[in-house]
Structures are given as structure tokens and as C-alpha cells.
Amino acid sequence: MKKNRLSLLFFYLTLTFAFTSCSDDEPKPEPSEKPFAGIYVLNTGSYPANNSNLFFYNSNTQIATKDIFNAVNNQALGKTGNNMIVYGSKMYIAMTDQNAIYVTDRKSKLLKTIETLEKPRYFTSDNGKVYVSSFTGVVACIDTTEMQIKKEIPVGKYPEQIVISNNKLYVANSDYTYDQSQKTVSVVDLTNDTENKIEVAVNPAYLAKNSAGNIYVLALGNFYANIPAALYKIDASNNVTPMNITATEMTICNDKLYLLNTVYDETGSSSTITVFDTRTDAVIPNAFIKDYSVFSSSPYKLSADEVSGDIYITSQGTEGGEVYIFDSNGNLKKKMSTGGDYPVCTVNVR
Asked: Signal peptide location in the record (predicted)?
């Protein structure tokens, strides 16, 4: 009988604890915020006008917001937005002729303006840091926690795109001044910031890295000297191999290079997009875009989303910038007006 009383007492105590723990006085968890996901497009604007802006398409609500940076911050973006990157919880926007880097949260709320670097151009990220090239001949390293530049690494003249592979920073030293002797990619060992230069071809501007760590360089040549643009590969031993492809823009997605080649003549311009498999170093024979008439004007810039495999192609239409979203098979999924001129960069937030 005593044992039964003890069991009954334990039952009541347990029941009382259970009701106390789940009472209305216990704080309830707040409902989780609906995920903020979508696509940002940076419109560089019409040079030298002060009219760069930022477009956002929310993939959850399917609502497009033009000039979202101004709407969120009550502040115009500024002059000549050139590139942006999302890294961790922050987004970084390079404003070349504003001589500024905006650091925002993922909803484009301005957290800090970095104004200690002139002419910022292109970003890359690695190991908790964001790197940005500058036309002053350096690549700056940004501490993402303190949101300030920690060091500047000297490289070549007018550096453009940058990538990191195997703890080495690769920098395309461009031919912005049409100096035909400018043919190098800087390779910086990030353990000690020592730099070596590799000669490729005139006016290297764009870089891409595949999963094997090979670097692909698009050298834009010199139109006035009849030097065509060309693609090159730099392997882990810094051997340079020509790929025998001409292009004017490129992006990489899941080891495939998407190469845009636009040709101008007295009648206008024409564009083609070639897909190049970096695992085999061979062109994929099937045409990526089946019908170029979907574009209001010639394709302008390329970006990609590694997660979905989508390819973003921008153009400058008669009524402003446009972004076209294609799946990996070249099927058009969506077309949107970006609410600005000359969209140059597209990034995803998830």
C-alpha cells in the first residue's frame, strides 16, 4: 500500500510539473520570419551620370522592387556601381566612381560605407575575408567582422576580376589604357602576400575558377590594334594554355564556362553564347540559346547561380535594363525590367 501511495504522489508531482511548464505564463517562441530570398541586379547607370541603382526580385513573394537601396536607406546608390558579392550575412557593393564600398545586410540595409579605397572594381571571398580590386593597382582585404580594410596588396595596373584558388589570389591586370605590353595575371601567395606575374595575352580582364582549381582567363585584346579577345587556362603549375575561343564576356557555373561573344560592325551588333566544359576543355556542341530573338537588344553581361544552375543574361533595352533568367538547358524562365540602365551584376540571396 505504501508503495502505491508513493507511486500516486510521484504521478501527481509529475503532472503538476508538466502543467506548470506548459502554462500560459511560459514565453512562447516567436514565429520564424519568412525566408528572405531572391535576386539582386546592380544597374551601373549611364556614365558619367550619377544614377546607379539596385533592383531586387523576391522569389517568395514574386514582388520586384526597383531602386531598393534608395527605398530601404533613403539614399541614392551613387555613381558607377561595378560589382557586388554576398558573403555570410552581408552584401558588398563596389561603387567605382563613388570611391566607396557599401556594406549592407542581405536586405540591402546599409551597415557601413568604406571610403578608404579609390576606384573599387571586383570582389572575391575566402576564409572569412572579402577581397576587392582597385584601379589604383592594389587588391584590398576587408575584415568582414570589423567591416574595414585591413591591408592592400600591390598587383599590376588596373586590376579587374579576381579569384582565389589553393590559397593563391589571381588578379587580371587589365589594359585599361590600351598598353599592349600589359599581358599579365598576378598570382599572390596569401600566406605571405608575395606576388609573381604570369604572362597571358593583351588586356586580361575576366577570371573564373573550376572545381579542379584551374583558372580561366579571358583577355580582351585590343580592338584598335586588331588583337582579338581570347581564352586561356592557367593550371596549378602556372602553365598557360590557349583555348582557341574568342569571347567578350564570361561566367562559370558547375564547371561550365558560358562565353558571350559580341561582334560590332557598321550595321550593328550580333551575339552568340558558347558553353565550354572545363572538365574536358571542349566546347559543348549544342547551342545554349536556341532563339536570340527573345532579347530586346544584344546581351550585355553574364552571371550564374551555382545552386540552381540558372544563367542570368542582362541587356540594355530601349526602355532600360533587362535581366533574362535561363535554366541550364537554355530555356527562358523569366524576363524582368531592372529599373535602371546597364545592369552589370546579378547575385542571389537565400
From this structure: 1-23
